[in-house]
Amino acid sequence: MGLEIKILDFGDIELESSFLVLGRDCGRVRRVPVYGFLILGGQYPIVVDTGYRDNAIMETLGMRGLQFHENMVERQLANHGVRPGDVRYICHTHLHIDHAGKDDHFPMNSTVVINRRELEYSVSGLMHPQYPKPDIMHLVERLHTPGSLRLEDLEMSGPIELIPGVYLEAAEGHTEGSMNVHVDTNDGRATICGDVIYDFNDQIIEPVRSFGPEEYQVTGNHSGSKRREKAAMRKLMHSGAKYILPVHDKPAKIEAGRVVGRLDMAIPGPVSQSVPRRDWFPA
Ligand SMILES: [Zn+2]
Description:
By secondary structure, this protein is an alpha/beta fold. Helices cover 19% and strands 30% of the residues. Strands 1, 2, 3, 4, 5, 6, 7 and 15 form an eight-stranded mixed β-sheet that branches. Strands 8-9-10-11-12-13-14-16 form an eight-stranded mixed β-sheet.
């Protein structure tokens, strides 16, 4: 019996388009989803990313939060019969404002799992407003509460098995400490990639303002070099994962390093929302 991934819908955000894909539609506003993921069928339920704290906090970046009652983490988990206290691990792809905003809705004995480099980076002052004080202060509370925070050194350790079928690996893109979460489902490996990819179509399938389809476009919001970003995307696309799940775009189905299908939004299969809408469609 393999693992299943349920998509949690934490509400949308509106932001400037070129923040997501470098040079795209400068000055125009885009609306994108903010997803989290619930991994079921294993030893324990695991959550990956918790969305943003509230609509007001998105204003600190000049963005607009569109979070409604149904997007609350408790409601999203309840759709799958899970309560916050049932969740054993809360993993973070990274700690940006829209990824770790609801950790204080979970009890302190649900362990938050982060790559140590990301916690360091969050207090470096680099990308400062994207790591909001209340979220980071809560993690410091956890640091001082035995058992409530687990830090990995994925750059040095290589991939780590969190529970059977769930592996954490350094992403080497987007932020200094981002991590990918690999999940072995009945239908092959699915990789949750955080913000290493924001937009499959405009970065990977038909990269905007690029000289060729293999020359991926980078985001407008990354901490390392463009070369590193491109390599992190390449690593993902060729990792052998059958599905790649970003946080701000629909999941993609991958074959031989290419996108061969998209999920809009829920499906019969290993990755789904609570209410199925449409099936996979060709890229
Ligand atoms: Zn994000």
